[in-house]
Amino acid sequence: MTLQLHGKKVLVTGGSRGIGRGIVLALARAGADVLTCYRTEGEAVESLARELKAGPGEHHLVRADVSDAADVERLAEQARVRFGRLDALVNNAGVISHVPFAELSADEWRRVVGNNLTAPFTVTQAVLPLLGEGASVVNVGSRVATIGIPLRAHYTASKSGLIGLTRSLAKELGSRGVRVNVVAPGPIETEEPVRPEVLERYRTMIPLGRLGRPDEIAGAVLFLVSDLASFVNGATINVDGGI
Q1: Catalytic residue positions?
Q2: φ and ψ at 191, to 5 degrees?
Q3: How confident is the model at residue 225 (pLDDT cuts 50, 70, 90)?
């Protein structure tokens, strides 16, 4: 069963691969018109464009780096020109790296925090005039935000900060009818290869005995975008198989 989102205008950041791609395609299949951005040209972008073109709706792909303020402004302007309004914003774009804390450079800290926390701030602020009453902001976080994990102090800190940002915005923007929530994925199977030993460890850790799929994260996002979630605000929804 697919939620029906016909007529909704949605911006998704980082939509060409992995979880973002799953979200974009699920939104389009549910009837939403989707504008998404990507950082690098390539087959992933081209194949996404083909898939979107094969289905109904008005969809647009824009090259933009959400860690760049000028690109964010250009992306917001594209949303205004293309759609005139936004019914939902999905802050999905993010980066990750695995670095021992003793070796973590300030530049790498800034890169990860800039993409994962500062970018949702700048994008949300830039498109705020397009978000009317009933609009939904969904921030894609991570289950590790409240657990912590070795070698990812910078990543965990950025995702924990995203929960704080979400809680504050939920209270501040709620008065204008804009809801702000987090979807926090656990380990998800994407295009990136996972070493067999790591895959087996995840299977042991996760009560459902497998990795999640991008479309399963998309399902939670679609719920939060839809009117079914009209009283859900400031929440973090863990989609992690019970880890």
Answers
A1: 155
A2: -70, -25
A3: very high
